[in-house]
Amino acid sequence: MKYLEVSFADPAFYLACDEALLELHESCRSGKALLWVWEPRTYFVVLGRSNRWDREVIHSECERIQIPILRRMSGGGAVMQGPGCLNYSLILNSHAYGLKTIGETFRFVLERHCGLIEQLTGTPVRSEGISDLALRDRKFSGNAQYRKADHVLVHGTFLLNFDLSLIERCLRVPAKQPDY
Known about the structure:
Layout: E1 2-4, H1 11-28, E2 34-38, E3 44-47, H2 53-56, H3 59-64, E4 69-71, E5 79-81, E6 85-93, H4 102-121, E7 126-128, E8 132-135, E9 138-147, E10 151-159, H5 164-170
Parallel strand pairs: 1-2, 3-4
Antiparallel strand pairs: 2-6, 3-5, 6-10, 7-8, 8-9, 9-10
């Protein structure tokens, strides 16, 4: 596995880098996995591929406090990013890891997340829903994926020391909410 260490001042570059790295792996038919972990320096909102900003975002507040609104290539809901939100991007050869479906891919990645977090903290973590992680009935990680013919990008967030009030100020309450 290769590990990439790079950060950007412009949050749009993080999303562009995800897309470029996936395209590079796909075009080179790479068998190597790539892990990239990063924490943004500034706050921004990211919409999932099919989200409508008018349903997901409180645009007037984002504009007032100068929070950019971006869109990622993967699905999932709108998320708030910024300092205190650790992000990862993982590119895997789906054939090498036997990842044929969206569900198999999330199980493969999230089981490893749960195991590592429990090992580091001694606290049990659960995989909830399709692509979330929860600690004591509180969601702290959301994940999404984008699939190509031979590779899959799985990326997600871990709320560590994030200003949760910004989520309430900038994002609308989702129509579908989990029980946790």
